[in-house]
Design a protein that fits this description.
The complex is a heterodimer.
Chain A (H helix, E strand, L loop, with lengths): L2 E3 L3 E5 L4 E8 L6 E6 L6 E6 L3 E5 L2 E6 L4 E6 L8 E8 L5 E3 L3 E6 L1
Parallel strand pairs in A: 2-11
Antiparallel strand pairs in A: 1-3, 3-8, 4-5, 4-9, 6-7, 7-8, 9-10, 9-11
Chain B lengths: L3 E4 L2 E4 L5 E7 L5 E7 L6 E6 L6 E2 L7 E3 L5 E6 L8 E8 L9 E2 L3 E5 L1
Classes of the chains: A mainly beta, B mainly beta.
Chain lengths: 109, 114
C-alpha cells in the first residue's frame, strides 16, 4: 500500500528553526509537495521537489532523498503566523497526489 | 481572478437528504478534484476529472457522484446523505501537464449530516 508518515504535532519557539519530517512509500514517484494549511482554511502550496537535494524559498526550505523515501520542510526565523498544519504529499506513478495526515505546528512566544 | 470558488460554504443535512456542492474555477485548468478532509486523516480523493465531460473515481467514491459538463465547473452530489459524510470538502484544480502539479484549492465546504 501507499503510505505517507509525518509527525502529528510539533511545538517550536518564535524566532527558532523547526524541521518537519516526512517519509513515504508509494507506487512510483513524480514529485513531493509541501502545503501549508491554517486552521479553517484551504491548503496553499509551499514547495515542490522532484530531484534529490535542497530547495530554498525565503524562510522555508525543502529537502528530498528519493533513495531513502524521505523529505523534510525546514522553517527558519519562526513567526507566530507560521502556526499551521503542514501537509506532505507525493505524486505517484498515476500522477495522483497521496497525502499525509499533516503536522500541526504550534509556535510559542 | 477569483481562483477556485465553492458553494455552499456550510450546510447541515438530515440523513437521507440530497445536495450538490458546486466548484467553479476561472483559471482554465483541465484537472479538477474533490477531496474530503477529516480530523487526523490526510486529504482523501473522492472523484476527479481530467477534462470536460470526463470523471473518474478516487480513493473514497462511494456515496458520491460528480459531473463536469463545463470545463470550469465540477459538481459533487450526495444522493442520500449519511452521518459518515460529515466532513470538510475541498475542491481543487491544476493545469494539465503541470510539472509542479501545484493544486489550487477552494475555501472548503463544511457539511454536517445529522
Amino acid at each position: 500500500g501507499q503510505n505517507i508518515d509525518q509527525p502529528t504535532e510539533m511545538t517550536a519557539t518564535e524566532g527558532a528553526i523547526v524541521q518537519i519530517n516526512c517519509t513515504y512509500q508509494t507506487s512510483g514517484f513524480n514529485g513531493l509537495f509541501w502545503y501549508q494549511q491554517h486552521a479553517g482554511e484551504a491548503p496553499t502550496f509551499l514547495s515542490y521537489n522532484v530531484l534529490d537535494g535542497l530547495e530554498e524559498k525565503g524562510r522555508f526550505s525543502s529537502f528530498l532523498s528519493r533513495s531513502k523515501g524521505y523529505s523534510y520542510l525546514l522553517l527558519k526565523e519562526l513567526q507566530m503566523k507560521d502556526s499551521a498544519s503542514y501537509l506532505c504529499a507525493v505524486m505517484d506513478s498515476n500522477y495522483q497526489l497521496i497525502w499525509g495526515a499533516g503536522t500541526k505546528l504550534i509556535i510559542k512566544p | 481572478n477569483a481562483g477556485v470558488t465553492q458553494t455552499p460554504k456550510f450546510r447541515v443535512l438530515k440523513t437521507g437528504q440530497s445536495m450538490t456542492l458546486l466548484c467553479a474555477q476561472d483559471m482554465n485548468h483541465e484537472y479538477m478534484y474533490w477531496y474530503r478532509q477529516d480530523p487526523g486523516m490526510g486529504l482523501r480523493l473522492i472523484h476527479y476529472s481530467v477534462g470536460e465531460g470526463t470523471t473518474a473515481k478516487g480513493e473514497v467514491p462511494d456515496g458520491y457522484n460528480v459531473s463536469r459538463l463545463k470545463k470550469q465547473n465540477f459538481l459533487l452530489g450526495l444522493e442520500s446523505a449519511a452521518p459518515s459524510q460529515t466532513s470538510v470538502y475541498f475542491c481543487a484544480s491544476r493545469r494539465q501537464g503541470a510539472d509542479t502539479g501545484e493544486l489550487f484549492f477552494g475555501e472548503g465546504s463544511r457539511l454536517t449530516v445529522l
